[in-house]
Amino acid sequence: MAQVMTLFNLNLLFIFSFFLLFSSIEARGIKYCDKKGDYPVKVQEVEISPDPVVSGNPATFNISASTVQALSGGKVVIDVSYFGVHVHKETHDLCEETSCPISSGNFVLSHTQTLPAITPPGSYTLKMTMTDKNKQKLTCITFNFKIGIGSLVSDH
């Protein structure tokens, strides 16, 4: 009986490890808010570290993008939803998230934030809207991310 329980526990550990490994390397589905919008800033990739995010620990969001025009400033607005319910909104100066001025070509927006330890685990949707100094929309994307249970994924 003890051998059966040990085998069961090892199988359970293997399945859990497999799930964590593949959930952390799954492709991040970036969607533009307006499919017909021809935004001057195109987003290529979103990297989140750690992935899944751990409540109470810092998480870094790196958004790789390119622009066809030079940018000297603007705003980045972040809206977060949990199972479709809006839970958080914040606005940042574009030049605090990347070096300004931004020349035409590739650049990276980087933001690190520590979520409160009471943040519930689960799937979240983040909507990022970027505007220039004249409040003209430069881009708008959405993507999903996960927040894991701290005690199970905190040793990264």
Automatic annotation (TrEMBL):
Gene3D superfamilies: 2.60.40.770. Keywords: Signal. Residues 1-27 form the signal peptide. GO terms for biological process: intracellular sterol transport. GO terms for molecular function: sterol binding. It comes from the Eukaryota. Pfam families: E1_DerP2_DerF2. Residues 30-145 form the MD-2-related lipid-recognition domain. PANTHER family: LEGUMINOSIN GROUP578 SECRETED PEPTIDE, NIEMANN PICK TYPE C2 PROTEIN NPC2-RELATED. This is MD-2-related lipid-recognition domain-containing protein. The lineage of its organism: Eukaryota, Viridiplantae, Streptophyta, Embryophyta, Tracheophyta.
